[in-house]
Specification:
By secondary structure, the protein is an all-beta fold. The protein has one helix at 206-209, and strands at 7-12, 23-24, 33-35, 58-62, 71-75, 86-94, 101-108, 118-126, 133-137, 146-149, 155-161, 167-174, 183-193, 199-203, 216-218, 222-223, 229-235, 243-249, 265-272, 282-288. The strands form 4 sheets. Strands 1, 3, 4, 6, 11 and 13 form a 6-stranded antiparallel beta sheet that branches. A 6-stranded mixed beta sheet has the order 2-5-12-7-8-10, with no helix packed on it. Strands 14-9-19-20 form a 4-stranded antiparallel beta sheet, with no helix packed on it. A hairpin with a 5-residue loop joins β16 (222-223) and β17 (229-235). It is globular, with a radius of gyration of 21 Å. It holds the Pfam family MAM.
Length: 297
């Protein structure tokens, strides 16, 4: 039996004019444009953050120039999966209406699907240093089909795909209600045959926390699919050592849960944000809860 390795499928930062072989749909009412900045934001792409003159491009759907309900569809080149699961990740910036929307579709090609229809996978709607860190917690399965787009900053998104036939990923921008002065922008797309993290903690202004006496920073509260509430803490006050801690915390479901959360595993990953997933560095720690291992106070 030959073991198969985790498979990289696609990475695109839109630096080349061919935009990684992505294509515009002829069935929509607007287009995505390759730009280096937008007056209402973003002022630079996510890959270079404005540090490299003459480079730094991303794709932008100008929702301010179209009517409500207009759509712009951008499809990837055809991809050939080896496994039945994939993780799509990308950065998204909203400078348009809070009601603008990004839909993620797959267009699957198979003998049984001769019409090659689009399948909606996820809806993302509006309502979130030079070297940034992420903490990704792979604790139980917690799939979502809806996410928010905070206005005015690049945000990282992960979308779980389950495709076995050759397919395209399609990004569908939708003009929402309300006033728009900008639109939706996407950058640094990566697709791999791996499991998506179940939770992502994006720490901003990371370098300002390093070495400070109050260098401990706590994540928001997260919930597992079984209802346990937990939190992650990073201690950055004693470099080069970094403390990474996992805490169970009080939550809304405490009365219905088994304590002390026996035989569950969490994997925490500190990950840098190189635009190409193949060049990223990471540091992982895993913890398995054992009800028979306790320490005194």
């Amino acid at each position: 039996m030959v073991a198969s390795s985790l498979s990289f499928m696609e990475s695109c930062d839109f630096e080349l004019e061919n935009v990684c072989g992505m294509i515009q749909s002829s069935e929509d009412s607007a287009d995505w444009q390759r730009v280096s900045q937008v007056p209402e934001g973003p002022e630079s792409d996510h890959s270079n953050m404005g540090r490299c003159k003459g480079s730094g491009f991303f794709m932008h759907f100008n929702s301010s120039s179209v009517n409500e309900g207009a759509t712009a569809m951008l499809g990837s080149r055809i991809l050939y999966p080896k496994r039945g699961f994939q993780c799509l990740q990308f950065f998204l910036y909203n400078s348009g209406s809070e009601h603008d929307q990004l839909n993620i579709y797959i267009r699957e090609y198979s003998a049984a699907n001769v019409n090659r229809t689009l399948t909606l996978v996820e809806e993302i709607k509006g309502t979130l240093s030079t070297f940034l860190f992420l903490v990704l917690c792979s604790l139980w399965n917690n799939n979502v089909s809806f996410a928010d787009i905070p206005i005015g900053s690049w945000q990282l998104y992960h979308v779980t795909l389950k495709v076995s036939n050759k397919f395209r990923v399609v990004f569908g921008g939708v003009r929402g209600a309300g006033a728009s002065r900008g639109g939706l922008s996407i950058d640094d797309i990566n697709l791999s045959e791996t499991q998506c993290p179940h939770h992502v903690w994006h720490i901003r202004n990371f370098t300002q926390l390093i070495g400070s006496p109050s260098g401990s920073v706590f994540s928001p509260s997260f919930y597992s699919s079984k209802g346990y509430a937990f939190q992650i803490c990073l201690n950055l006050s004693s470099l080069p050592n970094i403390g990474m801690y996992f805490h169970l915390i009080s939550g809304a479901n405490d009365d219905q849960l088994e304590w002390p959360c026996p035989w569950q595993q969490v994997t925490m990953t500190i990950l840098d944000q190189n635009p190409d997933i193949r060049q990223r560095m990471s540091n992982k720690r895993s913890i398995t809860t054992d009800p028979f291992m306790t320490t005194g106070l």
